[in-house]
Fold this protein.
Amino acid sequence: MIFEHSVRTPSAQAFVDVTNLVRSSVRQAGIKEGHILVATPHTTAAVTVNENADPDVVHDLLKRFNKVFPEHENFDRHGEGNSHAHMKSSLFGACHPFIVHEGDLLLGTWQGIYLCEFDGPRTRRLIISILARDP
Amino acid sequence: MIFEHSVRTPSAQAFVDVTNLVRSSVRQAGIKEGHILVATPHTTAAVTVNENADPDVVHDLLKRFNKVFPEHENFDRHGEGNSHAHMKSSLFGACHPFIVHEGDLLLGTWQGIYLCEFDGPRTRRLIISILARDP
Amino acid sequence: MIFEHSVRTPSAQAFVDVTNLVRSSVRQAGIKEGHILVATPHTTAAVTVNENADPDVVHDLLKRFNKVFPEHENFDRHGEGNSHAHMKSSLFGACHPFIVHEGDLLLGTWQGIYLCEFDGPRTRRLIISILARDP
């Protein structure tokens, strides 16, 4: 009831749509009702939910996020120079819960699940843990 | 063990207190101990927790959030012009977990649960999924 | 299966590493697989996950967060003058889920769990609720 996937991210900052990956793990587990957690065990990546119909939404989110948390600030002390990525990871969160209902992920029409890369490109781990409700 | 409610939001951006709605679903389910998820299946709305005693707190939160993520940025590409609302939805999150203890929501004295509207007014879905701990 | 700890925070804004506290509760519960919630029932504190190897990361996060959400804004109405702390609490979130796998918290190499103080110093409650997966 734990699934792990490797996800290759394409660039320094990117959202990779993992909705189908999560959905296929839920179906493989064969549960009808329950809660799942989708986690990425990294401190410069995250998991979030947003529109997956128009790719311009992701463009705008990354650009807005970067404007508010730019790659470098004069006061940054962390030697690796990726404090902006740590900030973004904490704000989006590295572990998100989802509802499973009638054998499928309960998502809205426009909702997709994204693995968020803020310090790539890299290969990231995506872990899905499933807890079924008693019948 | 899944409850769905419709929530009418009053304006373009607003926090609607849904604490009593969530609490009543928990009581109706009749569980004593467990975890619940409160979700809104939309990409321009969210769920959050904050003070519900002084309405000025919500005023300040919305104003601060709007200053950082204004309604329009020159670089926005998304044709619907509501990228700010997608950003806010991702940051607050569309699905939040809560603890149920001794038959009731475990919340602090000042904590209330809000459905956050960022692109309203609209009628939004609020879904509550309940997972009991084995006795 | 619910544990409560008191955590003393050292200053107005600080991240206190509670990873070992959470880990010890998971071991005390004796579960092998499941999901847990780590919550702080306050509206000016939060729970988050980030790097716990280099303390400069926390320095940079707090400074970046403070730049974006400064302690005072001219438009703030809330009489207690701590709206920035409410904003930060909502953004990081007061309740986070984690996966338990093979008897231990499933965290990445660099991930630590922090209790975030935004209006201290104070003594804060930290609550850990554990839901085991059926064997």
About this structure: DSSP finds three helices and eight strands in chain B. The beta strands of chain B are 2-8, 14-17, 34-39, 45-51, 95-101, 104-105, 111-117, 123-132. Chain B touches chain C through 35 residues (CB under 8 Å).
